[in-house]
């Protein structure tokens, strides 16, 4: 306990231990200079009634209380006017995300993932702070997708949002670098305005009920590194406009896409993962992709046909690690040169 007599202590990390009730958290209260507190993975917090009261007099900028079996938002957080970083992930918090959390004007990072939250108390588009990261992953949020705040990292995946994507979503994502809303119940088409989000590098709309075609501007703008549209109801063809391409991952498995595989994919020199399985694409084997950085090529369950061996070239794939060409109409021999390194 003499550790808590160090009155100049600025950071305290006690997470991932097995403390018992002998640890009295009221000793934290006199530490007036403490700004960083990490008590993650300490289940004692659910049993210790005086814990929150002992923190009211201390102003933090970083609080990490992940995996503490908490069932509600700690009241002492209302008083944290200097709070910059808050992690309440992997707890047992139910019900409503309180509106007062948006009034913490210095808050930049909020992680409430892996809880049981269902509703929002008030809109998050009118938040008073300039957040950079909001992680709502794996909760039970439902109903209309809220108007999104101008945040660089947004993760709303694995929830129950049931609505169309807002027509003006591109404006909401103007400053977003990462946006994932996979594993929800979104329907309708992908709005063309999403291409106004020119800072986006990671976009994941997988595991929804989205229909219509892939916006051509998503393919031709060249800023995305990861594009995941798997397990939707997208139709039409894949736009053949990969001219200025920086993609590293393109995953559009299990849609209703048809036509040929775009030849312009050869311009995606950094492409490592191409997953177009479970569609209706009808084409020959894409020999021309051996010049790029492919490590994973998934062609499964389409209508590819013809030989895998190139009639004129001994095509090698020196860095390919996974090839799935099952359930197509390929014929002839499987060339050993394809498996050469």
Short description:
With 341 residues, this protein is mostly beta strands.
Overall description:
The longest helix has 5 residues, at 216-220. The protein has two domains: 1-140, Ribonuclease Inhibitor (Leucine-rich repeat, LRR (right-handed beta-alpha superhelix)), CATH 3.80.10.10; 213-341, Ribonuclease Inhibitor (Leucine-rich repeat, LRR (right-handed beta-alpha superhelix)), CATH 3.80.10. The relative contact order is 0.06. It contains two helices and 25 strands. The protein is mostly beta strands. The model has no long low-confidence stretch (mean pLDDT 89).
CATH architecture of the largest domain: Alpha-Beta Horseshoe
Q: What is the straight-line distance between the termini?
A: 60 Å
User: What is the CATH C-level name of the largest domain?
Assistant: Alpha Beta
Instruction: Supply Rg.
Output: 25 Å
Low-confidence stretches: none
Strand fraction? 15-25%
Q: Total strand count, please?
A: 25
Shape: elongated
Number of helices: 2
CATH superfamily of the largest domain: Ribonuclease Inhibitor
Q: Provide the structure class.
A: mainly beta
Give the tally of structural domains: 2
Average pLDDT reading: 89
User: Percent range for helical residues?
Assistant: under 10%
CATH topology of the largest domain: Leucine-rich repeat, LRR (right-handed beta-alpha superhelix)
Summarize the main sheet. 14 strands, parallel
Strand order of the largest sheet: 1-2-3-4-6-8-10-12-14-16-18-20-22-24
Query: Which sequence of SSEs, written as H and E, runs from N to C?
Result: EEEEEEEEEEEHEEEEHEEEEEEEEEE
């Amino acid at each position: 306990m003499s550790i808590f007599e160090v009155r100049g202590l600025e950071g305290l990390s006690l997470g991932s231990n097995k403390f018992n009730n002998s640890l009295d958290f009221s000793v934290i209260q006199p530490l007036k200079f403490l700004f960083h507190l990490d008590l993650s993975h300490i289940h004692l917090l659910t049993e210790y009634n005086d814990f929150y009261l002992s923190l009211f007099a201390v102003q933090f900028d970083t609080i990490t209380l992940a995996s503490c079996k908490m069932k509600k938002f700690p009241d002492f957080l209302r008083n944290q006017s200097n709070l910059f970083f808050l992690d309440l992930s992997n707890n047992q918090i139910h019900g409503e995300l309180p509106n007062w959390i948006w009034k913490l004007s210095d808050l930049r990072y909020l992680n409430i993932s892996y809880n049981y939250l269902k509703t929002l108390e008030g809109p998050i588009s009118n938040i008073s702070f300039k957040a950079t990261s909001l992680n709502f992953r794996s909760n039970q949020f439902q109903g209309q997708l809220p108007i999104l705040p101008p945040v660089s990292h947004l993760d709303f995946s694995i929830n129950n949002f049931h609505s169309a994507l807002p027509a003006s979503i591109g404006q909401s994502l103007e400053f977003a670098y990462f946006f994932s809303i996979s594993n929800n119940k979104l329907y309708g088409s992908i709005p063309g305005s999403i291409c106004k989000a020119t800072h986006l590098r990671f976009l994941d709309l997988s595991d929804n009920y989205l229909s219509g075609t892939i916006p051509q501007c998503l393919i031709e703008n060249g800023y995305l590194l990861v594009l995941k549209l798997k397990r939707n109801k997208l139709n039409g063809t894949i736009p053949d406009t990969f001219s200025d391409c920086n993609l590293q991952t393109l995953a559009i498995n299990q849609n209703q896409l048809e036509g040929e595989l775009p030849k312009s994919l050869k311009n995606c020199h950094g492409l490592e993962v191409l997953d177009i399985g479970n569609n209706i694409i009808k084409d020959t084997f894409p020999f021309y992709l051996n010049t790029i950085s492919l490590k994973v090529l998934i062609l499964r369950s389409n209508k590819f046909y013809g030989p895998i061996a190139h009639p004129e070239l001994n095509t090698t794939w020196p860095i390919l690690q996974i090839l799935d060409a099952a359930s197509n109409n390929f014929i002839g021999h499987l060339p050993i040169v394809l498996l050469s390194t």
